């Protein structure tokens, strides 16, 4: 969604180097390599739903921060953090993003691209909170045993084998 607004963003922030303009656009690709390293491990420990909800929430915050970024460095940093926390956009983003972003950037301005992304993420967040349920079996099992009051069964040392199986458990 950002491509059509890049010339206006470059003018707004006084960016003259084409490399820095390209970095504003492509910084999110780096997040596809770094974000899953942390978020995948966290989702195995705490479940996918809360990690996804947290990612969407912070993505909204940092997309709004992109709108009001005071300089190029903060714009790049906010964009990096926003995309690292919400990496579901590759599914539909490359298809509909440039068309939508071009329309938004040309009609109401490039900063509105970030506001629209935050608004759409907010809708996703509000719909996801009540309807998205946990699907990772070890986390569901641990929550059920804690709810039943059997603390011994829910002991983290015993569930650790389910969350992080050893090599012998994976390949008997």
Gross morphology: elongated
How far is the N terminus from the C terminus? 48 Å
Structural class of the helix and strand makeup?
Answer: mainly alpha
Residue share in helix? over 70%
Runs in which pLDDT lies below 50 for 5 or more consecutive residues are none
Series of secondary-structure elements, N-terminal to C-terminal: HHHHHHHHH
Quick tags:
172 residues, elongated, single chain, 2 domains, mainly alpha
Folded structure, characterized:
By secondary structure, this protein is mainly alpha-helical. The chain folds into two domains: 3-131, no CATH class; 137-167, no CATH class. It contains nine helices and no strands. The protein has helices at 6-13, 18-46, 48-67, 72-85, 93-107, 111-131, 137-148, 156-163, 167-170. Helix 2 (18-46) packs antiparallel against helix 3 (48-67) and helix 3 (48-67) packs antiparallel against helix 6 (111-131). It is elongated, with a radius of gyration of 20 Å. The termini are far apart. Its main location: membrane. This is Major facilitator superfamily (MFS) profile domain-containing protein. Keywords: Membrane, Transmembrane, Transmembrane helix.
Describe this structure in a few short sentences.
With 172 residues, the chain is an all-alpha fold. The chain contains nine helices and no strands.
